[in-house]
Amino acid sequence: MLKQVKYFVTVVKCNSFTEAAEECYISQSAISQQIRALEEDLGVKLICRENRKFSLTPAGEYFYNQSMILLDEAERIRQETVRIDRKNNSQIRIGYLKCYGGQELQNAIAIFTEQHPHIDIHIVNGTHEELYNLLCSGKVDLVLNDQRRAFSSEYENFHLHSCYCYAEISNRNALSALGKVTMDDLKRMPCILVSSKEQQENEKDYYQNILGFGGNFLFVDNLEEGRLMVAGNKGFMPVERGTNIPQVGTTMTRLPLFRSDVQIQRDYFAFWKKDNSNSDIESFANILHDMFENGLK
Questions:
Q1: Which of 69, 101, 201, 270 could form a disulfide with 241 if both were Cys (CB 3.0 to 4.6 A apart)?
Q2: What structural domains does the chain harbor?
């Protein structure tokens, strides 16, 4: 029933079954069925449906208000349960960007594991929004991410490095002979982005409207798949990473990516919740910072 309650609250918040279904990553028909099943379980009508519009019944208004309280309490219980479990089981859960291609994280994990052999490290990756949601929900302890949102006082915003951006291009493409490329050079080539299906529009919007990438977009699930497409001259891939840059082989070239006369930069941070801060997380963040700094030497 808790999942049905979440669906109901999302529908009311969005004032739309369609938007709520997209937010919950299910079909509109499925979310409608779940709301009907909730009404059947309760034995009351919560929503009056009128063509494509709906309104809440008096019982629905009450249930909505109480459901908000219930979901907040359920989340508090979940987070406290996870916190207690982590206290009894030494581990750090780390998230990083799918498009991150540097070696700093790998090196930091190796050093941290050597120094703290009793602590397990669990790794996940995702897009910017996916990592943000994982951190908000307490499903990861620390994320290596770029900055796209205003800083929050609830988090430690630990600056790691200001990284230059590059474009990986097939050696078969005439642009590979240049010393650098600009946005204008690349406007007729598809831009290959690493993203999950659910986050494609968010990633497209960011790269198109914030960074200024033009033309078409192609999406892949991981960095390796993107590089295979680059090798086949299917497009270029913007690569955002740190200072220890692995070679890309003989099939493609990595060129500095410029906007006007300035190479594009991205700021990388380690983010974690202040109320979840502990010496292990801080130790890992410091080692990661050292890995970025050492890459400059």
A1: 101
A2: 2-78 (1.10.10.10), 86-156+268-294 (3.40.190.10), 162-265 (3.40.190.10)
Residue with tokens 């900055």: 147
Predicted pLDDT at 88: 57
Cα gap 21→121, rounded to integer Å: 34
Q: Provide the pLDDT for residue 89.
A: 57
CB atoms within 10 A of CB 46: 23
Closest among 242, 256, 198, 195 to 220, alpha carbons compared: 195
Contact 97, 238 (CB under 8 A): no
**Cβ pair 88, 75 in contact under 8 A:** no
At 248 the pLDDT is 61
pTM of the model: 0.56
Structure tokens belonging to residue 47: 């929503």
Owner of token pair 């690493």: 194
Contact 176, 253 (CB under 8 A): yes
Which residues, in sequence order, are CB contacts of 221 under 8 Å at separation 6+? 98, 194, 196
Query: What is the structure's pLDDT at 244?
Result: 47
Give the pLDDT score at 86.
60
CA dist 44 and 59 (Å) reads: 7
